[in-house]
Amino acid sequence: MEARSETRDGFGDSLLGRLPGWALAAGALALIAAALVALALAGGDALPERSGPPVEELAVERTVLEPNRIELSLRNTGPDAVEIGQAFVNDAYVDFETSANRIGRLGSETIALAYPWQEGQPYVVSLVTSTGVVIEHEIAAAVETPAADGDFFGLMALLGTYVGIIPVVLGMLLLPAMRRFSHRWVRVLLALTVGLLGFLALDGALEGLELANGSGGAFGGAELVFLGAGLAFLALTGLDRYLEARRGRAAAAGSRGFQLALMVAIGIGLHNLGEGLAIGSAYAVGELALGAFLVIGFAIHNTTEGIAIVAPLTRERPAPARLLGLGMIAGAPAIAGALVGASIDNAELSAFLLGIGVGAIVQVIVQIAPALRDSAGRVLDAANAAAIAAGALALYLTGLLVTI
After folding, report:
1. In a domain? residue 67
2. Whether residue 261 sits in one domain with residue 285
3. What is the reported pLDDT for 389?
4. DSSP 91
5. pTM of the shown model
């Protein structure tokens, strides 16, 4: 009997040994999927029903104001389905239209309220569910939502150009003067860049967390910021390794500086994407004061970003087309961000994109850090510490000129 058992075990092992790895993985995944389906079907019936009243939660993801009409995009963030029974605006009963009153878990629905709102006035929208739960949404100041027409897209593109592309390119004009710096001052300039980028990362993280905390939380809150940061950090690390391998194979001497400048431009570009989101969102709700002060404030603030991009290029002479390309990579995302922020206005998406910008900037800082070492191998000597502090302080002070 023992010999027969050994023969069977040996046959099974040899059969499994002949199967390719992908087949074994597919079989294991199929078993896991079947077990999970069975657990979902049978497990729910085996457990007792929850006691107590239903838990009803609705998050307002977007508000659209049109003449005599308030439109809310709702998402069910609770465990139970929600059925809307009545709607009130400032305690006044209003008629509403919706394709389906009942919203399932994580489901979304749009409800349109017939109400003659007045521009600039505050309103509180109260939605009463079929079980009597009241869900409120506050509109601080009613402003008609801009229509997504050609004029709107043109204005967003112009704003993105003013606050993104032009300031960055202006900052890059300092490159000829920076080429005359000694090696020591180049290190200090790179340290200044680290200070600038560090402040951008902190600013983006705080703004992303604030947006995440104010979101409905259906797809996560603060986790979205950290998820975006982690994904961006890993993606840019992989891109850097790929570019490094290509540089090694091509033996392109001296291209490391341009590669680092490219990483800086990508990191700043992703941050400017988040900056554009804030601009677009503020414009959509009437909180953006368009005018010379806005343009000058962003120009002064973002010119420092152009300096950060060209800092690694003080020992190289890239073609003007390449420099212009770096400026576009860093500045143009502000246009896309403004368009998304004004037309979508989703707090969770904005938090995720801001997190991506944070992760990208942190990865760039990690790349720049080795270039700060002096002859003794120190990264943070007195000059570098002062330069990092000066970079952060410069962005803080110029940021005071920008009000969104």
Report:
1. yes
2. yes
3. 92
4. T
5. 0.67
